[in-house]
Amino acid sequence: MPFLRRSSLAALSLAMAATVGAQEPVRKDPPRDYSAPAGAPYVAEEVTVTTPAGHTLAGTLTLPRGASRAAPVGAIVTITGSGPQDRDEALGLEGYRPFRQLADSLGRRGIAVLRMDDRGTGASKGTFRGATSADFAEDVRAGLAYLRTRPEIDARKLGVVGHSEGAVIAPMVAEKEPALAGIVLLAGVAQPARSALAFQLKNLYEHDTLLTVARRDSAIAAIPQRIEAMMAADPWMRFFLTHDPAATMRRVRTPVLILTGARDQQAAPEQVVEQEAAFRAGGNPDVTARVLPGLNHLFVVDADGFPGNYRKLPPPVMVQPEALGIVVDWLAARLR
């Protein structure tokens, strides 16, 4: 979920930002502390997951204390947004580690969480560059398969939580894993991401105070051609900009929670209505959808939601408690 930078040329290559970001060079971040906090009612275990493609993914499994073969617990796999992400989906904003927040909250409610570094990122093996959303979906399925091998995990109570691009990948996983007990889509889209990219680029140019009116209008008019050039250069971009999330959603019957912030300027809040409609059109009877006031694409309180201002957010930058609580309560009702 790379940042959308203010420079107009750099922004073109990064304009997908959290929802639909052009693939950046793979990061090799310094080691992070993934251990459980002192006194937590869960343990944090470092694990490796082998994928059908042959590479291994490094992850952390947070497991409630007392989970056992005799008393197995439900579990989720987290799915990061676009760009090479570590298992916490840390973005360089002080305090922002949304999947660690989620794992902690769920662990305290008796639900296990597997969060993994993206392929080729952090401690995971494999190659990130050139992989598509469909490839990442298979990595998530490998995580689910791993959970099914653990005697402490109840294989009947598994789910996934995806943020940004991860919210597009989650229905792809659910289509192939119809036994999942629930999926959560955070700041996703229903339309092919080409529409979201056009929305982001237009928003970027309209906020760029360095552009004259004439240059701004010219840049906006050239957006379709720029998108075509980006698609031609990148297999991931070609897949993601042409994949139709709504078509996949119509084939999914898994219970689903859809959340977006009202100030999200990367995945338009109106997409919540379209996502809900797509699931319901396919006959899904268990769909919950909400737009949360005052929150940006990161589910952080924000005055305007413009990604170029993320670094101005006061630290620590953390997922707003109401949003986190909605997700945790919804999952607890289905996985416990």
Can you describe this structure in just a few lines?
Residues 1-22 form the signal peptide. With 336 residues, the chain is an alpha/beta fold. The protein is 36% helix and 17% strand.
Strands side by side in the biggest sheet: 1-2-4-3-5-6-7-8
Order of helices and strands: HEEEHEHEHEHHHHHEHEH
- Using the alpha-carbon principal axes, give the shape: globular
- Classify the beta-strand content into a percent band: 15-25%
Q: CATH topology, anyone?
A: Rossmann fold
Q: Cα distance, first to last residue?
A: 30 Å
CATH homologous superfamily assignment: Alpha/Beta hydrolase fold, catalytic domain
**Helix/strand class:** alpha/beta
Helical proportion, percent range:
25-40%
Question: Which runs of at least 5 residues are low in confidence (pLDDT < 50)?
Answer: 1-29
Major sheet: 8 strands, mixed
Number of domains in the coordinates?
1
Mean pLDDT value? 90
What would CATH call the class? Alpha Beta
As a whole number of angstroms, the C-alpha radius of gyration is 19 Å
- Compute the number of helices: 11
> How many β strands by DSSP?
8
Level-2 CATH architecture: 3-Layer(aba) Sandwich
